[in-house]
Amino acid sequence: MTDPKPILKADDLSKRYEDGVLAVDHLNLSIYPGEVYCLLGANGAGKTTTINLFLNFIPPTTGTCFINEIDVNKDPLEAKKYVAFVSENVMLYGNFTARQNLDFFAKLGGKTALAKNDYYQVMRRVSLQEKAFDQRVKNFSKGMRQKLGIAIAVIKDAPGILLDEPTSGLDPKAATEFLEIMAELKNEGKAILMSTHDIFRAKEIGDRVGIMKEGRLVMERTRQELQYEDLVKIYIDYMKSEPLAV
Amino acid sequence: MTWTIARKEILSNLLSYKFYVVILLASVLAATSFFVMTRDYKERLADYSLIRPKAGEPIAVNPPNPLSIFAKGLDEAMARSFEVDRIGVTVRAGQKSGNAIFAFFPTPDFLYVVRVVLSLVALLFGFDQVSREKEAGTLRQILANQTSRSAVLLGKWAGNFLSLAIPFALVTALGIAVLGLDPDIRFSADQVLRLALILVLTLIYIAFFLSLGILISTLTRRASSSVIILLFIWVLLVFILPNLGTLVARQMVDVPSVRALSEKREQVWTREILLRIKGQGDMPSHVRTISAENDALEADYRIKFDRLVNLSKNINRISPVASFVYAVTEVAGTGIGEEGAFKREVVRYKNAVLGKMLASPNMESSEYPAFLYHYRPLGRVLAGGALFDTAWLAAFGVLFFALSYLAFVRYDVR
């Protein structure tokens, strides 16, 4: 049996901004089907920059991002067919209903032949209340918008999912529901990269957890390893440690 | 993808109150313009019925052009009364707008509504297309998919263009249909074709301003910055630049004043009459001399005036708004080119009448030929500059869209 190929892969990835800040420093990362990788780190550690590099929102200084073995920088449109994205604050069209938003983003994601019921089914799956299906999104709470963001990712049915601090600002119930859906997606074989500040949930859902500091991946542990280690302590120790030598 | 984005833009517009306010405003203004200008046309038509020459009278009067309802241009100047006598042509006021308010404010014709109001409306549709989506965060969500930036930009342009063009074309078509029910207003097939062309020009004009709005939107990070920059550009393009050429050209080309020209004519006339009193030559030869010298004066004036006009037009074309005005008025038959052709026709008529007068001095007045002006055919109008102005306007629209694309490709969506 051949080894599974990573869906999301960062190969010696670096990003230095115009102002000289090195946001990502020689990052190597591979996320396989059915795996959740949680990236922990303080603000400015390079988590969001990594996701922006995967989405080709910014070009890398060196290195390469691959999605489903496609070089993101060389063929971004083809690569993005295989990835879905949920941001910290899922921003949608306030004047549109949940279904209209879902319909629009599904079409952008290449799903052009979906029926009304398909949308309702996905919204039920992410536990969005039925009465919200045809309501305008401008009245939605953050939790509801995040669920709709996940619904957009679900309906795209891409093998890779990028989540940028998706549970930030959610109440515990909403965050738990969110992570339950993530677990389901993982079981379906999706490769998930999630940047987060939430150490507890990272430990709970992550098959692997990495800590980023000043753009570098300074630590990586598997779920098994974390059974015997205190992730909170490791995280705090890294955050307290001296700045890394450039 | 482009059509998905375009559909989203159309739906987004249909769900926003801004769309209905703007469409209502444009509709009310267009309807008001049609109403006011129809009344103006009818008044001038009534004047024409009153002053039109009886059969054989050596007077050249052109009826008002029904297309002046849409673009009045120089129609009033062309509808004056040109009376031929032995010393040349006497120009009378003819049919002038009875509405005194027109002297203080620009004529509120369809062209004015489009030029000023619709350009602003198009900018309102375009000014925040990219910056708003960036501020809202939806641009990231869109571009996280396999959607190219060109598809996003083209979709936005197409969606907003259709949102604006379809209601506007419907309102205009309805207005024209209502005008068609008026028994006093009759459009020939040629005029209907010209109207259709004016509508096409209007759509190109909307497209130009929409492209400009989107361009500025891609160059700014905030919609508020975009709106301020666009308002400044709008004032410059619509009000300042199209008048700049005339001021500059006047400094570069000397054209004698109409008063000086008139004075010169008087001198010629006095000289010839004095010669006649002295007994030198017969009356017909003096009349011919007066006519020939007046024609030479007029031709010389026309050459200088045309030079001034051409230079002004070329400078004014810095603003594509000027090109739009030139193209629409020429197509409507109320432009500078048509007025020049009309004046030449009046001179030809005068010479024909004078020729008859001198050939048989005792001829009955009923034997003079009637004046009938045929507007230049559309093909000649287009070849005479309207096509260039249309292409110029369209080229600016394409250029601005291309620049928006270049800016959007580099746009930081984070």
Description:
The complex is a heterodimer of chains A (246) and B (414). Chain A is of the alpha/beta class. Chain A has helices spanning 47-54, 76-79, 98-108, 116-125, 142-156, 172-187, 199-205, 223-226, 231-240; strands at 8-16, 22-31, 36-41, 62-67, 70-71, 83-86, 160-164, 191-196, 208-213, 216-222. Chain A is globular. The model of chain A has no long low-confidence stretch (mean pLDDT 87). Chain B has one domain. Chain B contains 14 helices and 3 strands. Chain B has helices at residues 2-14, 17-51, 75-78, 110-126, 131-136, 138-143, 149-180, 189-219, 223-252, 258-277, 283-316, 320-332, 336-359, 378-409; strands spanning 59-61, 81-85, 88-92. In chain B, helix 2 (17-51) runs antiparallel to helix 4 (110-126), helix 2 (17-51) packs parallel to helix 7 and helix 8 packs across helix 9 (223-252). The radius of gyration of chain B is 26 Å and the shape is elongated. The chains are: A alpha/beta (246), B mainly alpha (414). The interface between A and B is medium-sized, with 29 and 23 residues.
Q: Summarize the biggest pleated sheet of chain A.
A: 6 strands, mixed
Low-confidence stretches of chain B: none
Most extensive chain contact? A-B, 29 and 23 residues
SSE run of chain B = HHEHEEHHHHHHHHHHH
Structural class label of chain A: alpha/beta
Q: Point out poorly predicted stretches of chain A.
A: none
In short:
Chain A has nine helices and ten strands. With 246 residues, chain A is an alpha/beta fold. Chain B has one domain.
Keywords:
heterodimer, A: 246 residues, alpha/beta, Rossmann fold, 6-stranded mixed sheet, 4-stranded antiparallel sheet, 35% helix, globular, B: 414 residues, mainly alpha, 3-stranded antiparallel sheet, 14 helices, 3 strands, 72% helix, 3% strand
